[in-house]
Amino acid sequence: MANIIAVVCASYGLAQSVCDGEDLAERFFRSDHTNNWAVLVCTSRFWFNYRHVANTLSVYRSVKRLGIPDSHIVLMLADDMACNHRNPKPATVFSHKNMELNVYGDDVEVDYRGYEVTVENFLRVLTGRLPPSTPRSKRLLSDDHSNILIYLTGHGGNGFLKFQDSEEISNVELADAFEQMWQKRRYNELLFIIDTCQGASMYERFYSPNLMALASSQVGEDSLSHQPDLAIGVHLMDRYTFYLLEFLEDIHPASQANMNDLFKVCPKSQCVSTPGHRTDLFQRDPGSVLITDFFGSVRKVEITMETINLTVPGIPLERFGGEPHTETALAYVDQLPVAQIIHQKPKQKDWHPPDGFILGLWTLILLVFFRTYGIKHLKHIF
Amino acid sequence: LSIRPVLSDPEKQRGRSAAVAIAALVIAAGIPLWWKTTETYRAWLPAARISELEALQLELRVEVEVVFARGTLSPEQQKKVPASRITYESCCKSKSLCLVEADHALHTLTETSCGSVVIYIIPEASALLPQDMRVYVGRSRTALLRSQVASVVGAGLPEVLAALDPQMEQVLQTMSFNHQDVTAALTDRLRPGLSTRDSLADSMRAFKSSPGYEITFSLLNPDPKHHQLHWDVEAALDAYIYPLLHKMAPVANFSVDSQILYYAVLGVNPRYDASASAYTLSADSLAHVINPVEARLGSNAASSNPVLNFLLYVPDSLHSPLIIRNDQKQEVASNAFHSPRWGGIMVYNVDGAYGNDTQFPVDIAIDMSRVMGVFLSQLRLMLGFQQTGAPPGFVLEAAGREGVAEWELDRLLWSRSVENVATASASITSLAQLLDQIANIVINDNIAQQVASAVTALQAAVAELEAGNLALALEHSREAISASERAFFDPSLLHLLYFPDDQKFAIYIPLFLPMCVPILLSLLKIFREVQQHRAEKRAKRD
């Protein structure tokens, strides 16, 4: 006998491979995704923008009804309408006049609320660059097999969307954010819906693959609101989202409706503005993409065929981790350390050079001094 | 009536020199100062090494030890083969030994390092393997190959090995890696459509490489009034699951917890089938079971690791027994199903444990070994141990209680190392590209440090893969991927500095124009005066 050490080397670069084997169920491969995420953003504050919150909440409601759990939805509402002082029916947000449909419900989970809805936070959620202390519910933990639905609503213009009445996000920034998501494979396919004035301008600059976009109006057109409610006193919904909600109410988790039906929602006769869509970056044919691929969460399921036989008689279960350790008694940390607060030293503030006002004031004083008393006193300074 | 002040020549000269001095000061000191103070801080990145990563060539090397048993080589061949170590394996001689014991005895002879394979060549006539089987792969890294090389003509060592080559290659493709595995691990960087459907299914099913995983075992009891369930999950986890997780410690960290959910119902109504006198769930409706339950499951808020959920559902007494039927309307033996990248659900029927007239609620102890058998196999699938079909003529020893055979673990380590290297290099190159494109992003020192350490670890991992040290390669690749993820997802890299050009003009013009206009005009005036002076001088000369 002898021992020989043989060495096997294999080199891999970018290689070709042949597609073979069709033995897995067709259903498994109709689409490439295994989970669904949704990022729903309302960017306007103030009571008269009630309709934007109602828009977002109605999409939230549909998405939840079709199966996406709260842990996979990032809901950002820039203002609180349900508990607003001017809401005659507190704890409700209605989407139909005569208060038919309360989209607020009793299990709404808002992840970013009020002033937390900023351009920075929105981009951080999309790109994943959140500080490490951010809880799980505020993160978009998607992977390369996730389908993501992104819905934006608010006031917009040609190439920008206004956040909180104080800042804006431009279409270039949005396209760059999506490209960074693609670089990290944070999505498999992405559906982008925007309901603002001149919404089509926001998807003009996209350049990453697997993106499909819908907008409620073209560049130069305004998106209009649907109906005011006389009791509440504001417009309840925007037209595009109103008809989108009507369309989605007919969808159930096993429905086979596809994207071409979604493109037909709210034609010009109903919407007054012309909805637009963009599918050139999307690889699959929109007719083969189901609505539930983005709005619902239909899981792929496989039957477990193999099991491991662990029932071997006579062998006792050994304790793997060693002796069970006794638990030490736990106590709460001092919740309000008064002693520390009372004897706190004042914080060391960084020194800043004197501000403009102080500098200007002293310059003025010096100038006046030297004008009145003559330039020869300058030698006392230098 | 405005009187223009008449300046004398020295005064004019002084004025001119003052204007020139101010202009010189603005240009020499002002512009560099403005540039420096409006510059974004960008630490230096190793751009050359990063561009090398774009064309990374991976070489994977497996160390194979081939041991010829007595009787496989003819005496002439034996003389020509260098005998560096002569070990007599007495176990192989005895014909009454079964295969598993032989494998175990062989395993104790050689110390195999992670990633290496030992192939024992046994004679054609050996009775150790059944008649139609040529190869036996054991639980550790050994394989028994039945072959006859004595008949090879002109037998020196290279010819003997060449004769064995195709069979050995098949063994190695089963035990270490093959083309499909590696392309599946590299799906990030390959064009879509290059991997086969099977490997695509495997890559969709298993979680991507992550520094940690959270595993949650849940017992769903929709009927506490009738069933009082007891499950000794801690002991079962200790006995069955923790050994596997401990073996996978070099791959990732695991955190395991368990819970019991009461009044949790499935989202679908099972249909009663009179022929089987049981309630059935068809394969189509299984997809809708998970969503209503998932909302109740909860997860650890503190970590962002992927979560695996394993649910044990005990149907309520009205809907017992509940069986799952597959597409061909046949009963499924395990009564369980799983969802890729999510976890598994098993339905455990307890109606046999009590009769009609017992006192409710009934105390029922769940048979954890049966349950854990199903969960363990589902866990293996989720973690990336593929359902490998054995090639014809192969016997693959089942892993049994240990959960995973060492060669299966090695297989996973190979694909994980390749995946980590591919992902880390993709992150680094795309980060470098991003930072190049957007000139306004601040690059802090810690990001530069992370990038440098990621690149170093990547190069070390590639070197170790070439050398065949799998364990070290995996460690380096994990370092590389964690450093590259930290660098890519650093919160300070947020690009909020997009200024359209018209906004840039709008900011700078009110600041610089009032200052620059007098300077420029006075310079122009001086220039014209000098010109005029020169013209006069020339005229005077002529």
Automatic annotation (TrEMBL), chain A:
Bilayer-crossing residues are 356-374
An example GO CC term for this entry is: GPI-anchor transamidase complex
Q: Which Gene3D superfamilies match?
A: 3.40.50.1460
Active-site residues, Swiss-Prot/TrEMBL: 155, 197
Q: Name one GO molecular function term.
A: GPI-anchor transamidase activity
Say if the entry is tagged with keyword Membrane. yes
GO BP terms in the entry:
attachment of GPI anchor to protein; GPI anchor biosynthetic process; proteolysis
| InterPro entries named among the record's database cross-references | GPI_transamidase, Peptidase_C13
Superkingdom as given in the UniProt entry: Eukaryota
Pfam families per the UniProt record, alphabetical = Peptidase_C13
The UniProt keyword set, sorted, is:
GPI-anchor biosynthesis, Membrane, Signal, Transmembrane, Transmembrane helix
**Pathway terms, separated by semicolons:** Glycolipid biosynthesis; glycosylphosphatidylinositol-anchor biosynthesis
The record's similarity note reads: Belongs to the peptidase C13 family.
Q: How does it assemble?
A: Heteropentamer. Part of the GPI-anchor transamidase complex, consisting of PIGK, PIGT, PIGS, PIGU and GAA1. Interacts with GPAA1. Interacts with PIGT; this interaction, via a disulfide link, stabilizes the expression of GAA1 and PIGK and links them to PIGS.
- What name does this protein carry? GPI-anchor transamidase
What organism is listed for this UniProt entry? Denticeps clupeoides
Automatic annotation (TrEMBL), chain B:
Gene Ontology biological-process annotations: attachment of GPI anchor to protein; GPI anchor biosynthetic process
Location in or out of the cell: Endoplasmic reticulum membrane
Cellular-component GO terms for this entry: GPI-anchor transamidase complex
A Pfam family reported for this protein in Swiss-Prot or TrEMBL: PIG-S
Q: Which InterPro entries match?
A: PtdIno-glycan_biosynth_class_S
Q: How does it sit in the membrane?
A: Multi-pass membrane protein
Q: So, what pathway does this thing act in?
A: Glycolipid biosynthesis; glycosylphosphatidylinositol-anchor biosynthesis
- Which keywords accompany this UniProt record? Endoplasmic reticulum, Glycoprotein, GPI-anchor biosynthesis, Membrane, Transmembrane, Transmembrane helix
Coarse class of the primary localization is: endoplasmic reticulum
What transmembrane ranges does the database entry give?
505-527
Q: Read off the PANTHER family from this record.
A: GPI TRANSAMIDASE COMPONENT PIG-S
To which protein family does this belong?
Belongs to the PIGS family.
The protein depicted here goes by the name Phosphatidylinositol glycan anchor biosynthesis, class S
Q: Which organism is it from?
A: Denticeps clupeoides (denticle herring)
